[in-house]
Q: What sequence folds into this?
């Protein structure tokens, strides 16, 4: 069993892929209104939403447990519709030395595809892979999609 891992999930969305990317890159502070059972708040700590280097606090719910993460925006690629965040503080770092989240929106096909990937390094081999985060982001995808579908 290795300490370094990567988890990936991909799903199609019915909503506009450009809007989904915009939410992930510069409107994270709106996600709690779209997915209140999963995200409780996203508060800017340093910088500006939508800018590389910005730091924010994310209060969220994983499997019924309230969690907090301080994250930094590592990269935003507008052309590729990709955003990368790195967890720099929080409960997650008790189990993982490194935890990086990347979300990519592909609008080139018939369907808009959202790919989430988690790159991580466990503190030791007894830590399980963070598969609950795949379910977490899929629930958020669904909530964002529902929020933006015509009523």
A:
């Amino acid at each position: 069993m290795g300490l370094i891992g990567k988890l990936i999930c991909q799903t199609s969305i019915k909503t506009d892929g450009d809007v989904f990317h915009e939410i992930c890159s510069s409107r994270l502070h709106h996600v709690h209104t779209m997915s209140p059972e999963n995200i409780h708040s996203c508060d800017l700590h340093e910088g500006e939403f939508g800018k590389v280097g910005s730091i924010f606090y994310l209060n969220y719910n994983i499997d019924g447990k309230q969690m907090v993460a301080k994250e930094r925006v590592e990269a935003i690629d507008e052309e590729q519709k990709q955003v990368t965040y790195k967890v720099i503080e929080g409960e997650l770092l008790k189990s993982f030395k490194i935890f990086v989240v990347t979300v990519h929106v592909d609008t080139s096909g018939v369907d808009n595809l959202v790919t989430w990937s988690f790159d991580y390094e466990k503190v030791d081999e007894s830590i399980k892979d963070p598969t609950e985060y795949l379910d977490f982001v899929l629930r958020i995808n669904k909530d964002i999609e529902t929020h933006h579908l015509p009523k």
Summary: The chain has a mean pLDDT of 94. Residues 93 and 145 are 30 Å apart (CA to CA).
